[in-house]
Amino acid sequence: MSDQEAAPLQTAPFDARFPNTNQTKHCWQNYVDYYKCINARGEDFAPCKQFWRNYHSLCPNGWVEKWDTQREAGENPSNFEI
Amino acid sequence: MSFAAFVRANPALGPLFLFAGGGCAAAVTYPMYLLRTHPEILVDRKNNPEPWNRVQQHENIKLINVNPEFYNGRRGMDNRRY
Asked: Main subcellular localization, coarse class (chain A) (predicted)?
């Protein structure tokens, strides 16, 4: 093996709000929560990073890119405030 | 003649009306109950825009729970809102 210490492998933990196979809303909720967290607490607030990791595990990359482009253009319909 | 008089005249049809009537009542009230309590159904966009967020981490929202210890073990867990 090339690296002696592998980085700990993790994924998004179980969320009782989304117990079924369809994790679409889980993905969207984490995306929105990350940006709400960033807006409320600033970019360097460490606990926000858990939302970032969760939505990168759960969401298809195409969705993340589409939402990011929409968000930068101000066209994302989700509410990232409060 | 009235409904009660008809049933009294044909008592063998009593159970039919009982079960069919019960089924009709259930077919009407069960969807109404779901509209009020199910965490994934959005009815009131202004006052309750995200009904799934009221589900606690130790709550099971599926019909049957084969492993209640899993959910009971999550009792103290904090809700990961933003």
From this structure: mitochondrion
pTM for this entry = 0.83
The string of pLDDT tens digits covering residues B16-65 is 999 999 999 999 999 999 999 999 999 999 999 999 999 999 999 999 99
In chain A, where are the structural domains located? 24-74
Interface size A-B, in CB pairs within 8 Å, comes to 33
Q: Does domain A24-74 have CATH number 1.10.10.140?
A: yes
Every domain of chain B and the residues it spans: 3-73
Q: What beta strand segments (E) does chain A contain?
A: none
Q: Which of A16, A34, A37 sits opposite B55 (nearest CB)?
A: A16
Q: Give A4→chain B minimum CA distance, Å.
A: 34
Neighbours of B54 (CB within 10 A): 11
Q: What residues in A contact B67, CB-CB < 8 Å?
A: none
Mind telling me how many Å the CA of B19 is from chain A's nearest CA?
33
A27: tokens are: 């993905």
